[in-house]
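Action item from last week, closing it out:
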Amino acid sequence: MCGIAGRILNREGEVGQDLVELMDAQAHRGADSTGFAIYTKPLPEGGKVRLMGFDRRNLNSDLDDVIKILRNHGSDLLTDPQIDDASSAHYSVRLEAKEPANVENWIAEADLISNRIEVLSYGISLEIIKDVGDAEAVADKHHLRTMQGTHGLGHARLATESDVSPKASHPFWARPFPDVAIVHNGQITNYYLWRDKLELQGYRFMTENDSELLAVWISDQKRKGLSLQQALIKSVSEIDGVFTFMISDLNGIGLAKDRFAMKPLVTLESEGELIAATEEQAVRRIAPDRWDVFNYDGPSMTQIWPLHTIEAAA
């Protein structure tokens, strides 16, 4: 019963605030954890690293190890780390760093300390922020309402099969591809079959959450040369279950639904912008006066909404 949302603006704006509102409106669909993938202003060089540590007592030593691993792969910090000032045991860190010589190798080495810290996202624009609690709690802790950007995804999770933890919450980064994130509503019934196949190919799973499979599966398809549109179309026949998932990258947001379209998505498109959510009332939270342009049936099984940014007036 999770809730998902997507938002595209036609120019840089308060995308963080809009996504918080979309997820707050759907908090009843799952308040175990809430997460956001937000595309902020791209860096002119290097990339943004979002990571989570699981024991605040070891923050300094864990952060030293992360920086050491970055340097081992030809990178280094461009700015001082930004660390949440919350009092919970786990913590969130934002870094800006030079691009590693090989992102895939860097992530593979970083995964060796995954019991202590996890890289949530990497890219010139993407920042994934997720935590336990509802949208209001997560937004207050991580200062989401002030985040400026062009587009993003949101997720409210009701845990059904894996544990309630920041690590198991959405969105998932489609590692190791920079600037790609996924949110999912539903259940993947051939999860273990696909997980076994992908692990035999060397892919690493960070959680027991079936939604993570979609991020890893899409990564595998992209590595094999498929475009995002081709991967979305293929997912409908290859992935079993009832699902609606949204995937975002620098160029916009894509969607895939199972063949029976059991999980809804209500959309509003206007003037190069998109508001999408599991429930109509969430979309109305952002556009209360737009009564005649809602897509109540949701889009077809696969769709891509491209980003059409325009320059802000001087």
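Closing note: The domain at 3-42+125-306 is CATH 3.60.20.10 (Glutamine Phosphoribosylpyrophosphate, subunit 1, domain 1).
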